[in-house]
Amino acid sequence: SLARVALSFGPAEYFALAILGITAIASIGGGSLLKGLTAGLLGLLVATIGLDPLTGTARFTFGSMVLLTGVSFVAAIIGIFAINEVMQRFADGPVKTQAITNVRTRLPSWAEFLRLRITLLRSSVIGSAIPKRCGGPARQRNSAKALPMASPRPRLAITARSAAP
């Protein structure tokens, strides 16, 4: 079966599989083979950040405790899309914008208030009932503590400690 074949893989087979993956990336990558290979090798370089699974040696962490677990997949994807957007905007050049100068706030008239009185009453009841059902005042007080800027105490740095015998 396929599982037995996968379990019989050794270092040479894994190397061949890695080469197959890089060439697949390069061929799918578009017209330029060099760009595709560069993208594949850059992906491999990012994948090596963190602890080596065999020896436990830190690779490309530069002394940062955060990088010991490697690069998060979500963070890498967001970074790729952000870099793409920055390069696209840089290639497009400066964009001419026009400032909006005619800004006014229009409050609803009394006729609109009277027409929407049932909706306003219903919305007020729902808005008052939901915090009581989902934790009430205790949750509202604790939610401010979750915000990093709301805390008056300085944030403590995480440091590695050696275990005492």
Q: Can you tell me about this structure?
A:
With 165 residues, the chain is mostly helical. 56% of the residues lie in helices and 2% in strands. It has helices at residues 2-7, 11-28, 33-47, 73-92, 110-115, 117-133, 136-146, and strands at 50-51, 58-59. A two-stranded antiparallel sheet has the order 1-2. Strand 1 (50-51) and strand 2 form a beta hairpin. It starts with a helix and ends in a 19-residue tail after the last helix. The model has no long low-confidence stretch (mean pLDDT 77).
Strand order of the largest sheet: 1-2
Q: Write the H/E string, N to C.
A: HHHEEHHHH
For the termini, the CA-CA separation is: 49 Å
**Helicity level, as a percent range?**
55-70%
Number of DSSP helices? 7
Helix and strand composition category? mainly alpha
Low-confidence stretches: none
Q: What portion of residues belong to β-strands? A: under 5%
Number of strands: 2
Determine Rg (CA atoms, Å). Answer: 28 Å
